[in-house]
Design a protein that fits this description.
The chain has 315 residues and is mostly helical. It has helices spanning 2-10, 18-22, 24-63, 68-73, 89-120, 123-135, 141-159, 168-192, 196-204, 209-220, 222-237, 241-246, 264-271, 281-314.
């Protein structure tokens, strides 16, 4: 025991033992991996900061010519005309209406599908249905757009003869179908991560499978379900091709999904084709519209975070 104490006392701080010296190469590899991961994280932060900087700087130049009050309150959006108006509410109304129609389809159906796949579906059916469902997310959005224009709109016109060829309703319905895989897949993964002991405890108290799924599993997995909803909202707000093809690109201040309208993303595509000179006021409108879209998405994410935190406190 005394020999061990002497050896410990005789050890010099900072001297690497023979065993650690032999594995010095392993520590170098770990430091390299840590550095690569740090660079990857910093790169993502740098890209995000760069996007925000471009939007803010270009939008600042736009707002030197157009007041923020006119931008928010004007009821016309004609930035490419001689009598130019810059009322973003015209594009914002089309974006919100189409997104609400899509979410009215995607959130209920996606949640129901997730509950069924997680709590009721047999294993073989789940293994087949989930990949097939996720396959919908890989279909190009332009295909969805032409499907809405050539099939969904004529079907709706049978029920509503006065429905115009371009409308927000058909575009929103098809966009909702496109978002279903995002909502259902993330929600189902969150429900599957709930410990089996919670289900067994619910069954032991006499609850049925449906009661367990609704009152135990869904509240316990709400943080993941809320993330799925936020992902669906962001996907709906940022969708472009479906709305550009099926909803029309006519700026129209309306809250009626049966009418055609333009959205923020569709306008950005229209202006970004290169017809306007770089640096002109018409060209800078796409940055102001993009900044509005980013703030809208950020607001939805903050709202979802607050709801998720409040729901966690309640349970």
């Amino acid at each position: 025991m005394s020999n061990i104490s002497q050896q410990i006392g005789a050890s010099t701080p900072g001297v690497v033992s023979d065993r650690l010296r032999r594995h010095a190469g392993r520590h170098v590899k770990e430091r390299i991996v840590e550095a690569v991961l740090l660079l990857a994280a910093l790169f993502s932060v740098f890209v995000t900061v760069g996007i925000v900087w471009v939007l803010v700087s270009e939008s600042f130049l736009f707002f030197t010519h157009v007041s923020v009050w006119d931008f928010l309150t004007d009821t016309q959006w004609t930035p490419l005309f001689d009598d130019a108006h810059y009322g973003i509410m015209v594009l914002l109304s089309g974006t919100l209406v189409s997104s609400l129609v899509a979410l009215a389809v995607a959130i209920p159906l996606g949640t129901i599908i997730a509950i069924y796949l997680s709590e009721f579906a047999p294993f073989t059916l789940r293994e087949v249905a989930k990949p097939m469902l996720e396959l919908l997310g890989g279909v190009p959005t332009v295909v969805y757009g032409y499907f809405a224009l050539l099939y969904v709109t004529p079907a709706l016109q049978v029920l509503m003869p006065g429905l115009p060829g371009f409308n927000l309703l058909s575009a929103g319905l098809v966009m909702g179908v496109m978002i279903i895989p995002y909502v259902s897949s993330v929600s189902e993964d969150a429900m599957r991560s709930v410990p089996m002991s919670m289900r067994e405890g619910s069954y032991a108290m006499g609850a049925t499978r449906f009661q367990t799924a609704i009152r135990v599993v869904t509240p316990a997995a709400f943080s993941g379900i809320a993330a799925a909803y936020i992902l669906g909202i962001s996907r709906a707000v940022g969708e472009t091709m479906i709305l550009a093809v099926a909803a029309g690109m006519q700026p129209n201040l309306t809250w009626n999904p049966l009418e055609p309208a333009a959205t923020i993303t569709a306008f950005i595509v229209q202006v970004a084709l290169g017809d306007l000179p770089h640096g002109s006021i018409g060209y800078q409108t796409i940055f102001a519209a993009g900044l509005t879209l980013m703030l809208l998405t950020l607001g939805f994410n903050i709202l979802g975070h607050l709801l998720k935190r409040r729901f966690r406190q309640a349970y």
